[in-house]
Write a structure and sequence with these properties.
The chain is mainly α. The chain is built from 4 helices and 2 strands, in the order H-E-H-H-H-E. It is flat, with a radius of gyration of 16 Å.
Length: 102
């Protein structure tokens, strides 16, 4: 029983570590944009998303999760302004992560 519980706990811990982090261009549909344009726009948005994370108090002194949330909100907002939609989502849905899915 203990081994089963430890295995489940380890799997949940590893799944949580893998499932939460900074968004990348993989989370967005390039639509009709060329790959070169899409890559440049994504790099621009990643750079813009680093600014609030590195200069806001919550970004500097916040938790690991808060730092990812700040980046992801800014990155999503930037990509949406450039006309890219989240894969499987509408472009105006705010990025929210439920830390306890289920």
């Amino acid at each position: 029983m203990r081994k089963a519980f430890a295995a489940v706990a380890a799997l949940l811990l590893l799944a949580g570590c893998e499932s939460y982090g900074d968004l990348t261009s993989d989370a967005f549909d390039p639509g009709s944009a060329s790959m070169e344009r899409f890559t440049m726009d994504s790099a621009q948005c990643q750079a813009a998303a680093e600014v609030p994370r590195n200069y806001e108090i919550r970004g500097i002194a916040g938790t690991h999760v808060e730092r990812h949330e700040i980046f992801n909100r800014a990155y999503t907002r930037c990509m949406a302004q450039l006309g890219y939609a989240r894969r499987g989502l509408t472009p105006y849905v705010p990025y929210n992560v439920d830390p306890f899915p289920g």
